[in-house]
Design brief:
Layout lengths: L9 E5 L2 H10 L5 H16 L2 H4 L4 H6 L1 H7 L13 E5 L8 E2 L1 H9 L13 H15 L11 E6 L5 E9 L3 E5 L8 H8 L5 H7 L5 E5 L1 E7 L1 H15 L7 H13 L5 E8 L4 E3 L16 E3 H4 L2 H10 L3 E3 L2 H7 L4 H8 L4 E9 L2 E10 L13 H31 L7 H16 L10 E14 L2 H30 L3 H19 L5 H23 L1 H13 L10 H30 L3 E7 L1 E8 L1 H4 L6 H26 L8 E7 L4 E6 L4 E5 L4 H9 L17 E6 L2 H16 L3 E9 L10 E7 L13 H8 L1
Parallel strand pairs: 1-7, 18-21
Antiparallel strand pairs: 2-3, 2-8, 4-5, 5-8, 6-7, 9-10, 9-14, 10-11, 12-13, 13-14, 15-17, 15-18, 15-19, 16-17, 19-20, 21-23, 22-23
Helix pairs in contact: 1-2, 10-11, 10-16, 14-15, 16-17, 18-19, 18-20, 18-21, 18-22, 19-20, 20-21, 22-24
């Protein structure tokens, strides 16, 4: 047909044969009016036989349109012209033979140049739909290829309306041509498995191999709300904050749902931690509650009624006439803010998920009464999808914040995490707005530091001793093999290698130099291993000895790793035990008052704590919390000492530890160093604290060679008399609790570089190795008990 350009399995003939057959039945009716009407239509059939045999040209259609109107008159009765949306057409085509007045009005409102077209039908699907008509009508297969089809037609306001099409094919006949193939059950099965393969369909249904005779009747209804909701869901699922037109599409969907062309959509996030509304940190998303502000306290941003509805009743709040409310309550900033933005009616709706307020949806209009408590009910269909999307967005946003913080700052303690989140939000906002973005340094002012360590005494000497033993053992084993080699084959080179090994053993025994280990391992690799490979091939008895030597070597390090392994495992076990205990106790301490905490594993465990108002973000800090944390620290150090000495008897290497805390009298500022990914004190004066912290455990008691830290003792380093008095009170209390013994020393320290006047309290720690017995030991007694 001239009006049908695309491939189609049927040759389209517009025919009214089925209509005439129906009227021939009516011509026999006892109903006089029905019979007269039928005879009148049949006169048209006799006068214009092509209406029955079929028409294919536009010219013929135009010439016979008056007669066609009469034939279709009963289907398009006058009384339903303004109610029904109906057209007579051909399958899945845009040709309109007849339509109701309502359809014509809808098309007219769309504009003179607008032509209705099915929007969601692709060319291949269009062909397959034609094949499905043949299978159903001609072959009698009950195959459901139906899917909803739509006309998208804008209304006079520019809002896109969606009309769903329901086809009536009662007035259709399908006939075979010589091109048609007979279809078997097996071929139908192949077709059912080949919906995406148009070549299979064209193989069994060549173009124009069947004849379509008739007219289809398409009834339509306005499905704008349903389609808009579907698009709304799809948009939320596909939302990408980088799409500049997302909010426009989103707004268009809401305009279609509410059928209001001028409404605008805004959002505000709810920050539960700070109890404020915040702008969504994505481009082009407005907040009419906040207007030009980034955030504001909820009670300040809302009026009493809207606050009660959102937070008290968990329901929406409508303002149908902003001007009227503003006149009634002139001091309410909420209405002033809306009126200032030209908003005259609004709906403010809570977005809630998992029992919590997540944010606020803002629908606003420049027109009075357009938004009201009646059309606000439309939100019931929208909110479930919006809540799901916001929950996903919250998770995604949290992950992005976490990623920024991890990339910029590494792992952050929970007590200061809020500050990093705050800065990460600012960082994200700047990036979205296209501003230069850099993560600023985080500073906490006026905080009090606490430092403590439980250090493995003589760790360097113990490590060196372990290395010496392993090297001597390895060299001795090599020496034994060389002795046997000399017995088998007395070559001078063997004696020279033996001489070098003896020299190495003497060197390691007397003093382990920095490069001793490397020199010995290099010698073994270069001179000994090649010799051993030679000896293994030459002497079978030496092969056994050499293999036994290799069996003693560590697989990874290729050296004897016995005593050092004991040392390394002991240090690892000590650090793990101390760190785990400290972490567990820290959780409890945070409940007393929030503070910053970090710990490090070295040869022992050290920890930093900072407490102050700038960390807590609350106006609640009092020095009583500092004193409480100082007492807690002393107690925990004693418990860590006890935990260590309960562990000591099970360690591969027997080591001792010594504990120390450093008292700093003044508050200071700490800054997060972005390059080092850690906190450090800020300012020249405060740097004195860091100097003392790094050097004090190596300091000696004034006038002696004795270190200030000692096993079995808790050392408290300070500089002010007031600190001494405060800690003596704590010591007295812990003595009563059997944490500390009665030996209390007050000592002066040798001057450190740039630091003078330091003092120390040193108190013996009481140990209770067996918690089931009420016995306490000083260090000397404990050593006897463990011996």
């Amino acid at each position: 047909m001239e009006t049908f350009d695309q491939d189609f399995p049927m040759d389209i003939w517009i025919s009214f044969s089925s209509f005439f057959d129906r009227y021939r039945e009516f011509a026999k009716s006892d109903n006089l009016l029905l019979r007269e009407r039928a005879l009148k239509i049949l006169e048209i059939a006799e006068a214009h036989p092509t209406l029955e045999t079929g028409l294919q040209s536009k010219k013929e259609l135009d010439e016979l349109m008056p007669q066609i109107d009469l034939v279709l008159e009963d289907l398009f009765s006058e009384i339903l012209q303004k109610n029904e949306i109906k057209i007579a057409t051909i399958p899945f085509g845009n040709l309109v033979l007849q339509s109701t007045q309502r359809f014509r009005n809808i098309v007219k409102a769309a504009g003179e140049t607008f032509t209705p077209a099915i929007t969601n039908l692709e060319e291949d699907q269009y062909y397959i739909m034609g094949c499905s008509i043949i299978l159903n009508h001609y072959y009698g297969y009950s195959i459901d290829f139906k899917r909803p089809f739509h006309y998208n037609i804008p209304d006079a306001s520019g809002i896109m309306r969606y009309y769903r099409i329901l086809y009536n094919a009662d007035f259709v006949q399908i006939e075979k041509t010589d091109l048609a193939l007979d279809i078997t059950d097996d071929e139908v099965g192949e077709l059912l498995d080949s919906f995406e393969d148009i070549t299979v369909w064209k193989k069994y249904f060549p173009p124009n191999s069947y004849i379509f005779k008739g007219v289809v009747i398409a009834n339509m209804f306005d499905a704008t709300t349903d389609v808009s909701l579907s698009e709304f869901k799809t948009s939320l699922l596909q939302y990408d904050k980088t799409q500049s037109n997302f909010i426009e599409r989103f707004q268009d969907i809401f305009r279609a749902i509410f059928n209001l062309p001028e409404i605008r959509i805004g959002f505000s996030n709810y920050n539960e931690e700070d109890q404020v509304f915040e702008r969504v940190p994505f481009k082009d998303i407005d907040s009419y509650i906040l207007n030009d502000r980034f955030s504001e306290e909820c009670k300040e941003a809302l009026c009493c009624g809207s606050y009660e509805n959102l937070f008290g009743k968990s329901t929406y709040f409508t303002i149908s006439d902003v001007e009227k409310y503003q006149t009634m309550m002139p001091d309410e900033k909420f209405y002033q803010n809306l009126e200032h933005q030209g908003i005259q009616s609004a709906i403010i709706a809570p977005i809630e998920g998992e029992g919590k307020l997540l944010g606020v949806l803002e629908i606003v209009s420049p027109n009075k009464r357009e938004l009201n408590s009646i059309n606000a009910h439309k939100l019931q269909d929208v909110m479930p999808y919006l809540v799901d999307s916001v929950l996903r967005s919250k998770v995604k946003s949290e992950n992005e914040l976490e990623l920024i913080i991890q990339e910029e700052c590494t792992s952050i303690h929970g007590s200061v995490y809020w500050k990093f989140r705050q800065e990460a939000k600012r960082f994200m906002r700047a990036k979205v707005e296209g501003m230069p973005a850099s993560f600023r340094e985080i500073v906490f002012d006026n905080v009090y530091p606490l430092y403590g360590q439980i250090d493995i005494k003589g760790s360097s000497e113990a490590r060196n001793a372990a290395i010496q033993k392993d090297l001597k053992l390895q060299l001795s084993e090599i020496s034994k093999i060389l002795d046997r080699g000399i017995e088998s084959d007395c070559l001078p080179i063997y004696e020279q290698l033996k001489f070098r090994i003896d020299k190495f053993i003497d060197e390691v025994t007397n003093q382990l130099e920095v490069d001793s280990e490397q020199k010995i391992l290099s010698f073994i690799k270069k001179d000994i291993i090649p010799l051993f490979e030679h000896l293994k091939k030459k002497y079978s008895d030496l092969e056994i000895l050499i293999n036994q030597y290799y069996d003693q070597l560590d697989v990874e390090f290729k050296m004897v790793y016995k005593h050092r392994k004991n040392y390394d495992e002991s240090v690892m076990l000590i650090n793990k035990k101390m760190a785990d205990l400290l972490d567990t106790k820290q959780v409890e301490a945070q409940q007393l008052y929030p503070h910053y905490f970090e710990r490090f594993k070295t040869d022992g465990v050290e920890h930093n704590m900072y407490i102050g108002e700038s960390i807590t973000k609350e106006d609640s800090f009092n020095k009583i919390y500092l004193k409480n944390l100082r007492l807690w620290q002393l107690q925990v150090m004693c418990e860590m000492e006890n935990a260590y000495y309960q562990l000591k008897q099970d360690l591969p290497a027997k080591l001792d530890v010594a504990s120390m805390i450093l008292v700093f009298n003044s508050s200071l500022s700490v800054r997060f160093r972005m390059d080092e990914k850690r906190f450090d004190v800020d300012g020249t004066y405060n740097a004195r604290y860091e100097v003392v912290k790094k050097r004090v455990d190596k300091a000696n008691i004034k006038g002696t060679e004795e270190r200030i830290t000692k096993e079995g003792k808790l050392t408290i380093v300070y500089s002010q008399r007031s600190d001494e008095l405060e800690y003596l009170r704590y010591v007295k209390f812990l003595q009563s609790k059997k944490y500390l013994g009665k030996e209390v020393e007050i000592l002066e320290l040798e001057d450190l570089q740039g630091v003078t006047g330091l003092k120390a309290l040193r108190i013996n720690i009481l140990y209770h190795p067996d918690k089931t017995k009420k016995e306490f030991y000083n260090y000397e007694d404990l050593m006897k008990e463990l011996a």
